[in-house]
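Hey, I'm writing a tutorial for new members on how sequence and structure tokens pair up, and I'd like a real worked example in the thread rather than a made-up one. If someone can provide the structure for the chain below, I'll link this post from the tutorial.
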Amino acid sequence: MILRLNTDIAAGTVGLVFAAVLWLPREDIGRLSIIFPRAILVLLCLIAVALIVKGVIRPGGRHVEITGSPRRLFTVIAGFFLWWGLVEVLGFLVTTLVAFYALTWYLARVETRVTWQRLLKWTPVILGLVIVFYLTFKEVLNVRLPTGLFF
């Protein structure tokens, strides 16, 4: 599918919507834990507004070609929203591990059949990524992650 659109305005609008969605449910986060996310959201808003202004002042229409399956794209987007919804219920570690395994399986099966042996072979990488994310947010950035039922 080929679209002709002003990518600056489109990216800026998506950035503002994304920042608004993340900004609104922040009242249950501690005062110190919100400092870094708030700084990132303010930076995201500034960049998004700058993109929209640039797109209005000097519009640059581009042909954007979306390759691949739109169904696969929307399935992955729905998976991320599902992860976001379940992270409060099951906890960050469990939900993220399940999400990484599901995403790896779903995207890898496009190219080839995925067996349990292949998923087990990917386990060290998936565990490593999730643990790095967890430790970065928890220990380095002091972000209070949802614990949920398990962790």
